[in-house]
Amino acid sequence: MSDATIIDGKAFAAGLREKVAAAVTSLKDRHGLEARLDVVLVGDDPASHVYVRNKGKQTEEAGMVSVEHRLAVDAPEQELLALIDRLNGDPAVNGILVQLPLPDQIDEQKVTAAISPEKDVDGFHVVNVGRLWTGAEAPVPCTPYGCLLMLKETLGDLKGKRAMVLGRSNIVGKPMAALLLAEHCTVNIAHSRTRDLPERCAEAEILVVAVGRPEMVRGDWIKPGATVIDVGINRIDAPEKGTNEDGSPKTRLVGDVAFDEAVKVAGAITPVPGGVGPMTIACLLRNTVIAACRQNGLPDPEV
Ligand code: NDP
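Above: inputs. Below: predicted complex with NDP.
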């Protein structure tokens, strides 16, 4: 059997960003409107800084206005809630994203609930979660939506396919399952208490993995010819790459799937890096331009 097709998330994301940029230009030219995304960063977590910088850069590259708000690591919850309240009430703001994780003194659920559902471009607000599960129009969480777009591009119609979502987080696993169900897949959701996990995974024609465990899914967990979407991003030591100046080993990124084994069994698979990751920000930009249209009473753009 030949190796799996590699699903190129980078190229796919570039295509989506182009469509978003075209929608942003048309919003400007035809209606004189700017699409704007406000990102709130609390504290000084280095990984969060990198994510926020990338989001800002790509937002601007798509022709949208990007505004960043920084709060101190010890900012009281009330300060963040007051900022969200102000952004909710500002008609120039189309999307609000609060970068997670938040420091301990701030209740994440309270913050997510405070964002106006119409401006919740992450799709995490309970109202939007309810809309997603009941089939109503809603901003869809970015990472699972990116996975869905790649699945549809790879497989076409997903109707009737047997899908397994490994992981049941609110930001990836559960919304992924809702999206696949809406596409008429037969969906299983597995988690840390699932029995016979390798066998259950090996029944799936579509396997989406979001567990946060480096290379946990082995080649023999995969049904021959299955389409595998690896959401995991794990940094592991890579002594084979040598050491850093301080003597610590260099590192590399791996997914939740043992790629070298899986690629010999699957029909198609996303790599890490370069698979799901690039799609996530592209989907955030998509959600923002859609939010801008809806907030101004315009039909959804073709993105
Ligand atoms: P969470 O930690 O919130 O959820 C992990 C899920 O995996 C849980 O449902 C957990 O089960 C399950 N799980 C953990 N260990 C096992 C195990 N040994 N066997 C079976 N199930 C297990 O993670 P997220 O959903 O937030 O993220 C998952 C991965 O995706 C991470 O690597 C993260 O970095 C990555 N990620 C990537 C994104 C991207 O843009 N590409 C965006 C978001 C996340 P239980 O519920 O029973 O505890």
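The chain has a mean pLDDT of 97.
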